[in-house]
Amino acid sequence: MAEAALFDTFARAPLRFERGEGVWLVTEGGERYLDFGSGVAVNSLGHAHPHLVEALKAQAEKVWHTSNLYEVPGQETLSRRLVGKSFADKVFFTNSGAEALECAIKTARRYQYVKGHPERFHIVTFEGAFHGRTLATIAAGGQAKYLEGFGPKVEGFDQVPFGDLDALNAVITEKTAAILIEPIQGEGGIRPVPKEFLAALRKICDDKGLLLVFDEVQTGVGRTGKLFAYEWSGVTPDIMALAKGIGGGFPLGACLATADAASGMTAGTHGTTYGGNPLAMAVGNAVLDVILADGFLENVRDVSLIFRQGLAGLKDRFPDVIEEIRGEGLLLGIKAKVPAGDLVAAMRGEHMLGVPAGDNVVRLLPPLTVTVEEAREGLARLEKAAEKLSSAELKKSA
Ligand SMILES: *Cc1c(COP(=O)(O)O)cnc(C)c1O
């Protein structure tokens, strides 16, 4: 039921979680739920990870916030580590994904501006994209349901169908500054972009002086079994937005760029009050301590393989419930034959959490720390949920 003193923007499930441990969430009533949603790909190390708890507590006892009027040592460390593991030379820290995208969009526009092309401010995006809920990012995402009633759409975003190179080439003009894309669409339904398509985007950007911007807010920081999803394609962007998993549950985002792409972002052009504060940096660095440890990402890939094989088995057993398994690493989606909302509800009936997405998909995003045993537990619960929805099974029990 909607709480009268809150905006009615969310349709919440009637679950009240009091605490969590690893892959489990525990309600006020003491019921345990297997969390394969991770707060929408946020709790990358699960709940109450001891290293994160320790890092947050230790920082809380020193200093929480100083503003960006002063040097923040944690920002220096975290930016150096991100740069060392990516294509980028420069990092700007934010509190959220949408803000990381705002920074990416502003960085791309400023780049063209300082290169003598103020007319180049248009950014090409793709149908099914999700880039956040600010005025600019709903324009970038281009979804009518998120734009309706919020006044004129922010100018300068041109959307083309997913995977359509001809439409892309047709929409690029002398006003185009950049191409913005998620390497795997998350909210859009775990739709991977073929690597040939990403390579084609890279070439178009190089040929025409455009910047390639990847939104890795959902795919980044180990979610796909590589630190960044772009590593699977071998195609590197000029600018990249991160958030979600990088904070492990603490609000943290980042915009990464090459030195050239960031060349317009000079002193005073952009800012943030909270972005990169000492608490956030302590947690972000602690997340990387774990994810960059030897063998961690390899383990994500190994568990993913086993989990996926199990999901493929469920698809064969319940073809009237499951149409397709999609995704990479632990960014997985079940394209359902039944309404995705029904599958999420049936899973919840088995005390398992998943996240609905577009294209009638249920996302399975367990913490990256999930064990093989826990993945098997997830499969067992999914099997029971599918059984309840399968018409063959329904007939048998009738
Ligand atoms: C979640 C998400 C965003 C927005 O992040 P917020 O932290 O909600 O602002 C942007 N892009 C992608 C791909 C996302 O998954």
From TrEMBL:
Catalytic reaction equation(s): N(2)-acetyl-L-ornithine + 2-oxoglutarate = N-acetyl-L-glutamate 5-semialdehyde + L-glutamate
InterPro entries (alphabetical): AcOrn/SuccOrn_fam, Aminotrans_3, Aminotrans_3_PPA_site, Class-III_PLP-dep_AT, PyrdxlP-dep_Trfase, PyrdxlP-dep_Trfase_major, PyrdxlP-dep_Trfase_small
Cross-referenced CDD domains: OAT_like (cd00610)
Functional pathway: Amino-acid biosynthesis; L-arginine biosynthesis; N(2)-acetyl-L-ornithine from L-glutamate: step 4/4
EC main group: transferase
UniProt KW keywords: Amino-acid biosynthesis, Aminotransferase, Arginine biosynthesis, Cytoplasm, Pyridoxal phosphate, Transferase
GO molecular function, one term: transaminase activity
Top-level taxon of origin: Bacteria
Record-linked PROSITE patterns: AA_TRANSFER_CLASS_3 (PS00600)
Known EC number: 2.6.1.11
Cofactor note: Binds 1 pyridoxal phosphate per subunit.
Location, primary (coarse class): cytoplasm
Residues binding N(2)-acetyl-L-ornithine: 133, 272
Protein location: Cytoplasm
UniProt-annotated binding residues for pyridoxal 5'-phosphate: 97-98, 130, 215-218, 273
List of residues that carry N6-(pyridoxal phosphate)lysine: 244
Cofactor: pyridoxal 5'-phosphate
Assembly: Homodimer.
Homology family: Belongs to the class-III pyridoxal-phosphate-dependent aminotransferase family. ArgD subfamily.
Comment field (misc): May also have succinyldiaminopimelate aminotransferase activity, thus carrying out the corresponding step in lysine biosynthesis.
Name the record gives this protein: Acetylornithine aminotransferase
Species whose genome carries this gene: Neorhizobium petrolearium
Classification lineage: Bacteria, Pseudomonadati, Pseudomonadota, Alphaproteobacteria, Hyphomicrobiales
